[in-house]
Amino acid sequence: MVVEAAEPSNVKDVVQPEMLFRYPVISWVSAGSWEEAVQPYPDGFSDRYETSDYDSKGPAFWLEVKGDSMTAPAGVSVPEGMMILVDTEADVKPGKLVIAKLPASNEATFKKLVEDGGVRYLKPLNPAYKMVECDENCRIIGVAVQMSARL
For the Peptidase S24/S26A/S26B/S26C domain, which residue ranges apply (predicted)? Predict the structure, then answer.
């Protein structure tokens, strides 16, 4: 049996470029008045855009987290200053972190959607804050699908 030495190959693995998508950074007031008809984003819709490798199911946008209601003492935590990417057509189900609009506010809020006995609630990750019922007047705008921070 004759074994021949393998010839060196000139074929090399190529790292494929990462596909990036561009989404506007909007205010919490704009998120509270978000309408499905915003996509595609008109020129001047936002002064700032950020990219992500996440390919959204529908219109999406970035929000900067305000306050400490989503800062948990342990486990998943989304502290103030983090950027969250919100997909307006991602699956909304209990356990997801959502952006919701409550009727008593002109701003959106960021909380974990939970369900107990068929009743939905918006639960902060910080136990110092109270849960709020998400009744028929509560509108879920989208689901947080990614977070990032710049140092």
Answer: 24-145
